[in-house]
Amino acid sequence: DLPAWRVAAIEAELASTRTQLAPGDRQRGIDALDAAYRRAEALGAPADWRMGALQQLIAAEVDLNLGDSARAHAAELIRMLGEHPDLSPALRLSALTQASVAHSYDQQYRAEAEELAIQALQVARQAFGEVHAEAAYAGMRLAAVLRIKGDVPAARPHAQRAAELARQVYPDTHPQRARILEELARVQMRQGEIAEGIALWQEVLAARVAHYGESSFAAARTRSFLAAALLRADRLDEAASQASRAMADLGREVPPSH
What we know:
The protein is mostly helical. The chain contains twelve helices and no strands. It has helices at about 5-20, 25-40, 45-65, 65-85, 90-105, 110-130, 135-150, 150-170, 175-190, 195-210, 215-230, 235-250. α1 (about 5-20) packs antiparallel against α2 and α1 packs parallel to α3.
């Protein structure tokens, strides 16, 4: 027989699946996930499972712009990290990263987001080494927080280093490589390095087309950013072409939930 907490955990996992559905169902999915999580917690679910479920919950709340709920669950994650120092580095890293994301979308909490991102990068480097996919991703997340805060000069070295690592540790079309290069492109555009930013957006687009498909949501979204970059360079015909293709594809595709 399954332990009682595991039955509740299965309910939570089913609820998590509902958070991936159409927006009209996702709030109900979040509510069901939270309720199932609380039942599993009360029935003695282990800390590693609870932390994983909380991260799923936070990710869904961030997607729906439920900042207060996401931050409250992030605070719970941080408390659990303090209570369970024996958790694996991978779990500590993912928890710190998700907590940082939860705090980064509200200006009032971005100092906390930066501190959590710094801690995540330290854990990544100490546990996995300087040249590792986890270090690349954590560096990118710190760069993103700094950029969102408006401290673009501070973001630049982290974005640059993360991009250098991504080129070393990921295949050319890997989604994480593209996401990390995207962050550097964003920083370059903010710093007025338009030609360099365009070149990176083009590289990211090629990777996403190869991985997801020519007409995918990921490719269409990237085309929209590339179009904006081309517009800033007064490359109007190219910008119009990319924007037109992006609008057509976005009209066909349903975006992923994360």
